Structures are given as C-alpha cells and as structure tokens.
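Re: weekly structure request thread

Next one in the queue (361 aa):
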Amino acid sequence: MGIVRHATILTCFDRCAFKLAAAAAIATPVFWAQGRLGDGGWWSPLRSNLAALGAAAWALYLAMRGLQLGSWVIDMSFAAVALLCWLGRTRADFLLVCLAVAAGILIRESAGEILRIGLGVVWGVAIPLAAVERVQAWLDAHPRGPSSPPPRVARILIAAAVLAGLGFYVVGPAFLMTDRAERQALLKKLAPAFPLQDPKTLSPLAARLRGHVVMLAQTIGERDVFRPKSQARARDYILGQFAQAGYSPKKSAYQARWMAAVKNGTEFDNVEAVLPAAPADQGGAWIVGAHYDSASGTPAADDNASGVAVLIEAARLLKSRKPGRDIRFVAFGTEEPPSFGTRNMGSSHYADFVKENGIKV
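Done, posted below.
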C-alpha cells in the first residue's frame, strides 16, 4: 500500500482521505467475516483474509494521509505492518502482505507512475484471485526449517536482529531530519573542501546571485516553521526584490492544516510576482517557483536559497520582455519538514489557488 501514496492515482485523494479510510475500515470486517464462513462464501478463506488485511492497511494509510502525516511516518508504520505479517509467514496471506508492503517501501520513491499503478493492480486483483492458494500450497508442501527447529532463544534473537535492521533502515533518515545536532555534523562533513571563487572576481550577475544567497542563508539564517520572524524577513526580502525589479508583488497567506509541530491556524505566506502576457498572445501561464524556507538546523544555502536567487534574477531579467503567456514567479513557504509530503506545503496551497482560479498552466 505504500506504493500508491501519490495524489495522481486517486482524485481528491487528500480531501477525501477520511471518507476513503472509513470505506476501507468498513470493508475490513466484511472480508474478515467472509473468511470465517469457510468455502461457502464467494471467496475462499485465504482470499478473504488477504482482502481483509489489504483493506485494513488501506484504512490505516488513508487515515494517516488525512491527518497530514509525513511520508516517512507512513513508511515507519508500514514497516511495522510488514514485520508483523512476516512473523506469520507460514500463511500465504501474511507472507504476501509482508512482501508487498516491503517492496512498496523500497521502490516507492524511485518507481515510475505506471509501475506504481501496475503493482497496485497486482496487489489488489491478481494476488487475491490467483496467487494466494498457490503460494499456500507451496508453503504446505515445503515446511520451513529443519525437522528440529532452532531453540526459542535463537528464534527470538533472529527476530530481534531483523527488527533492528528494519528499524535502522526506516528510522535512520527520519532521525536525521529531526535531530538538529546529527544533521549539522553531517553537513559539516559534506561542506565543500575545494577552493571557492573569490567573490571580488565574480561577474555582476553572479555577484547578484551570490548576494541573494548570502542574505537568505547567512544574514537571515534558518527559516523553518519554528522561526516565523526569520520566515517573515525572508518573505519581505523577496517582496522587496520583486518590487525593485518593477513588479507589484503580492503575498498570499495560508493557514497550517493539521501541522502538529506548530499551532494549528498559524499563517504562512507565498510571494508572487506576475509578468503579464502581451495582450494579443494570451495563452495560459508559465509558473517559475522556489521555496524560501529551510529545514531546521540548516542555513539552506542550496535548498533552496540558490533557487530563490535564480527566481529573483529571472524575474528581473525578463521584466522588459513581452511574453506570449503570463509568467508567474512564486516563492513558496513551508516546503520543508514538518510540512514536506503534506498539503501544508506552500506549493500545494498555490496549486489549489491555480485550480480554483481556473489558471491554465
């Protein structure tokens, strides 16, 4: 189920998450009860049990989406589901659930959209209809382990080692994103050791780009959701730069939605400057965007002060042009954790704005 988290697969995925979760939760006991009927129902017990497990997993996943929990939290939860199912791996339904969830965690970020949909179809249709009885028959014909199983202590140690390895794989990146000291230590190791160019030798344009990065990453510094004053300074700096370039920039406030790390209802801002199209050539809009907030514990010079610098200079250089379409230069707020992967991202709010106003992109 971790494979198909992306909003493109289900329409109104986030907005309808709780309704879909409720439907999956209702389906779970229906399939489970069907499994208790034996072979007298429309599905065999094995197929029904697998469908019940799948519906329960969907209910959990959709409820977490509705609560706007980050994708790494979802990965951790589904890793726990995979581990629990692995403990019952002598049954085909538990074994297949474990393998499906583990595969989803491993390939979700790297797989293409078609592959994710294809795996979802295999999981939702092919396995319950065809694979589960065959796998169970194979398991029954090939009992695992020697005739004398290892002692109970050995089995516990093996299970603990598997749990520790899985936990390290899943929790490690999440811990790095939440532990300030650990992340700063890693950043220092990754800092460039090669000689950097003397700022005095930079071209005028390169000097301007560097100036924006220095202002955001060094003068203002960290700009995460826990530092609203720093975010406001960065926002006002970008507003000022757009205004100096000849635009009439606007800030668009939005409220945090289900963000446990900050007070619910706290306002953040996107900043937009629009270069209108030549009157005779209206044809929709191009959007150029970059986020101006930072991950906690980082100056965020490259993620994404450098992108904001390019955004500002692109707007300045294009101001004298008459484009065939509107060009919307947008600086997004709240892209980094705890917003990352949720509808709290500034870009998500801006996407809602584009849709609600019928802007053709």
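The chain has a mean pLDDT of 78. The first strand starts at residue 250 and ends at 255.
Next request, please.
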